[in-house]
Amino acid sequence: MSLGPSADSEAWVEKGWAALPPSYRIPEKPPSLAEARAYCARLARSHYENFHVATWLLPRRLRPHFCALYAYCRISDDLGDEVKDPQAALALLDVWEGELNACYAGSARHPVFVALAETIRACSIPREPFADLLTAFRRDQSVHRYASIQEVLGYCRYSANPVGRLVLHACGLADEQRFRWSDATCSALQIANFLQDVGRDYALGRIYLPQDDMRRAGATEAMIADRRATPEFRALMRQQVSFTRALFTVGRQLIRTVPFTLAVDVDLFTRGGEAILAAIEGQDYDVLTRRPEIGGRKKALLLLQAIGARFVP
Fold it and tell me: pLDDT digits over 116-165, tens only?
């Protein structure tokens, strides 16, 4: 008698958990809200240096919500990216979505979802943006090329834009116009990271540069594989940087419609993304032999500029 698909699924899930930190596993019993929030805060502090800047600018009452949102995004991303076997990653993402459903049903056990349940209740956050992120991470397991910029933007609609929408929900600023501006900023940030990480992504078997733009520029995968920043490749990158900068310009309209602290955050991340584009330009669009970086001093300057801009009429 066959053990059936459930036994196979459990084996894939166990293989996936084994590739991740033990603290990611779902406990038998849910923690208290205080314990869950402490878990999310620790995860945020240990994973993302810019998160400290983003949170200390926010009102204290919002910080636990932002930590919970960050923890959800962080672990969801790791389930998709750090588990190298696609089948195991997909099995874990299914388990994680099960916890998301349990969260909305009031029966979650994982500390992230225990903390998130209170954030969802307090901020009236719908399920869709959380589920959309999982759609992107599932797509990463099988889709490794994108035919056009519209397909890339379609990926960003699931991988990046939900994050901005979750932030707007948490801040009580959820409306369709702000969503559109936030989507432009989040998509621009995602694409800027793709442009910065062409070499790294190729090592993972992925190319996020639009295939039709590559053909028009005369750029090939062989150039990426051989790390040859030819004139054709540089022309492709020049066009992608120009497109991404235009997206940031659209998204900047959000800054003037949100409170001071969130405006600083949006401005800071926008300036950071634009700085990546400037770094790419500074290397004459060669992202293959050296990854464009933003140093610590530059990041500090961007923060000061973002704060200072709020006092300029």
Answer: 999 999 999 999 999 999 999 999 999 999 999 999 999 999 999 999 99
Over residues 78-105, the pLDDT tens digits come to 999 999 899 999 999 999 999 999 999 9
Look at the chain and count its residues: 313
Q: Which two tokens stand for residue 90?
A: 């997909």
What CA–CA distance (Å, rounded) separates 49 from 110?
24
Query: pLDDT at residue 301 above 90?
Result: no
Q: In angstroms, rounded to a whole number, what is the distance separating the alpha carbons of residues 84 and 54? A: 30
Average model confidence (pLDDT) across the chain:
91
Phi, psi of 288 (to 5 degrees): -90, -35
Identify whether the C-beta of residue 133 lies closer than 8 Å to the C-beta of residue 100.
Answer: no
Sign of CA dihedral 239, 208, 177, 65: negative
Per DSSP, the residues of the chain read: ---HHHHHHHHHHHHHHHTS-GGGSPPSSPPPHHHHHHHHHHHHHHH-HHHHHHHHTS-GGGHHHHHHHHHHHHHHHHHHHT--SHHHHHHHHHHHHHHHHHHHHT---SHHHHHHHHHHHHHT--SHHHHHHHHHHHHTTT----SSHHHHHHHHHHHTHHHHHHHHHHTT---HHHHHHHHHHHHHHHHHHHHHTHHHHHHTT---S-HHHHHHHT--HHHHHTT---HHHHHHHHHHHHHHHHHHHHHGGGGGGS-HHHHHHHHHHHHHHHHHHHHHHHTTT--SSS-----HHHHHHHHHHHHHHTT--
Determine how many CB atoms are found less than 10 A away from the CB of residue 175. 9
Q: Give me 50's structure tokens.
A: 């810019």
| Token code pair at residue 30 | 């849910």
